[in-house]
Amino acid sequence: MPNFEFPASIKSRPVYGRLEPRKGKFHLMIADGEGAEALIELAAADGALMAKSHIIYIPRDTGAGFAEKLTALGPAQLYIGPSYPAAVPRLRRVLADAHMGLQVYLTGTEGLMGQAMNEAMAAGIPHSAIQTEHRGSLARRMQCVHCKGITEDVMTDPFVCSHCGLHLFVRDHYSRRLAAFQGVRVDAEDPGNIPDPVELYS
Amino acid sequence: MTIQFNDETFRDDYSFHNSDRAIQRFPFPFHEDSYMYSVNMERHKGGPEGSVYEMRFDVDEHYLAEMKDRAMVLAEDPLRCQSLPHMTLAGWDLLELIMVSKSEDYPDLFELHREGSNWRWINRPMGIDQSFVFMDEASLPYGPMEYITRQAQGDFCILDQRDDNLWMDAGMVTTQADWSLDFDIGMNFFEWHAPVPKAHEMGIFVRALKFLLNIQQGSPARRLNWTLTVNPLLDTSPENYHKWGVQKTTLTPENLGRKQHLRVELQTFFRLPRSNALVFPIRCYLIAFEDLVSVPKWGRRLHRVLRDIPDELATYKGFIDNRPMLVDYLSQYDDGAETSPGVWPD
Ligand code: HEM
């Protein structure tokens, strides 16, 4: 699947690059969904990389296919998890042990990259040692500005807050601390007048 | 000069009102008949006697009512006041700046006695007499930033300066023009300004940041910003927008003069001595249109500004739907006469 070209946006919105193999003894790769394809391409670009890599992978709705392909790459360690939150304790443990010079590769959905980026930064990994590449779903992780609840995997604008039930429109304003975009009540000035939801970027 | 503090509210029955004196000293923000964003910054070294620029931290007739409103907002939503762990020192810097400034500028209202680190702070209007140990958090009922900003009008952002940027790492934000501290905390200067239209392309934020990074201790700066608010509501936060947004639709030609307010922010910038952080107080002044037009120059000028302001700004500031009604109302007060340059009444 080709990379999606995000349209130009405001300055708080993250931009993602393309993963490139870096030099170093230790490599940590965190991916979900189609992010697996970016890792497969990394392995192809540098045949020696995987033997020095720990992969944390969440298939999302992609089935078992990618997991098999990642196994075939022969990574030093491979973890396949059911969800990002389930993988967090393990991720923290791995980051707590991080050696100087650890290279971090994040790929997949924006929600995964944003949250894993925060874990890496909190563990003291320098920004310059973290790469990102968006792959797969365009879903957004949204914070409801009213109730503060996070709704994962938002695909439409507007959407319903999974916590307070308000209909929210999807802003491009993004908080790296929360790893989330901002959702604001769409019918605040005209209660009940809720536009039909439109698929993001359609 | 003793201040008569108003008994008034910024919610429910909206009994907020400005005295004649408050109207005369209102910081009208338009120095000409049109408005566009600019790097409008100048030194904050006082101003005409009695004006809002005279003192470092202006205290006016709304002081007690604003502090009550702040306490109510915080009781409902403690996230309006946040400080990242490395910002405590800057909080003490701010506490010192406000206590020293207010006790020097308003000796009849505030007193500060210092013996080494043993300090005693007296805030007469609020009935506070607090002895504490400077730099000892346990000696105050709140952290230093929260303690002092519960006693100071206006919002406060404390910006950490690093990597040639400013980072919004602490704040007390209960009277904001529709932005969220909880969402923006931790962002840098360009990120928190991301939603503003046009100004990025105009190069305003690059130049403004350069100016701010060079502000020295003892040489504060200031600028004005403005928007419009229906009803004298201080808490126009995005957090509560689902409750107050609908009030914008209650304007009619008959009630507009009373309900529609010009909201002006006197924004100041002070370098803090120990932390090298920058503090950004955002002091909000409200005035009903019917009071504003009592100064003929202001009525004429506001009519022309709102009539001609680019749609993008009217949309961002949230009054695009009401603009025709506002311009209609104000046109009654614009006889087409020439206006004098500058913000002051003729
Ligand atoms: C370091 C101190 C400053 C802080 C903390 C700050 C904060 C903010 C925030 C939170 C917003 C709202 C953005 C949103 O829509 O979410 C804003 C708007 C804005 N800021 Fe600043 N700002 C600062 C300094 C400046 C300076 C020096 C300028 C100089 C030109 C400036 C120009 C603007 C403009 C033009 C807007 C749009 C306001 C409107 O149209 O109502 N800011 N600022």
Structure characterization notes:
The complex is a heterodimer of chains A (202) and B (346). Chain A folds into two domains: 27-134, Rossmann fold (3-Layer(aba) Sandwich); 140-199, no CATH class. In chain A, 22% of the residues lie in helices and 29% in strands. Chain A has four helices and twelve strands, in the order βαβαβαβαββββββββ. Chain A has helices at residues 35-45, 65-72, 84-96, 110-122, and strands at 27-32, 53-58, 77-80, 103-108, 130-134, 140-144, 150-154, 156-157, 159-160, 167-175, 180-185, 198-199. Chain A has a five-stranded parallel sheet, with helices on both faces. Chain A has a five-stranded mixed sheet with strand order 7-6-11-10-9. Chain A has a two-stranded antiparallel sheet with strand order 8-12. In chain A, helix 1 (35-45) packs parallel to helix 2 and helix 3 runs parallel beside helix 4 (110-122). Chain A starts with 26 loop residues before the first strand and ends with a strand. Chain B has helices spanning 20-24, 63-76, 88-105, 144-149, 181-184, 189-192, 204-213, 241-244, 256-259, 289-292, 296-308, 311-316, 323-331; strands spanning 42-43, 81-83, 110-115, 118-123, 128-133, 155-162, 165-172, 221-230, 260-271, 278-288. In chain B, a hairpin with a 6-residue loop joins strand 9 (260-271) and strand 10 (278-288). The mean pLDDT of chain B is 97. The two termini of chain B are 25 Å apart. Chain B is of the alpha+beta class and 346 residues long. Chain B contains 13 helices and ten strands. The longest helix of chain B is centred in the N-terminal third of the chain and has 18 residues, at 88-105. The chains are: A alpha/beta (202), B alpha+beta (346). The A-B interface holds A 10-13, 143, 145-146, 148, 166, 171-173, 175-178, 182, 184-185, 188-191 and B 79, 180, 182-187, 190-195, 200, 238-242, 245-246, 248-249, 321. Protoporphyrin IX containing FE (HEM) is lined by residues 37, 39, 41, 157, 159, 166, 168, 177, 179, 184, 192-193, 195-196, 199, 204, 208, 212, 223, 225, 227, 280, 316-317 of chain B.
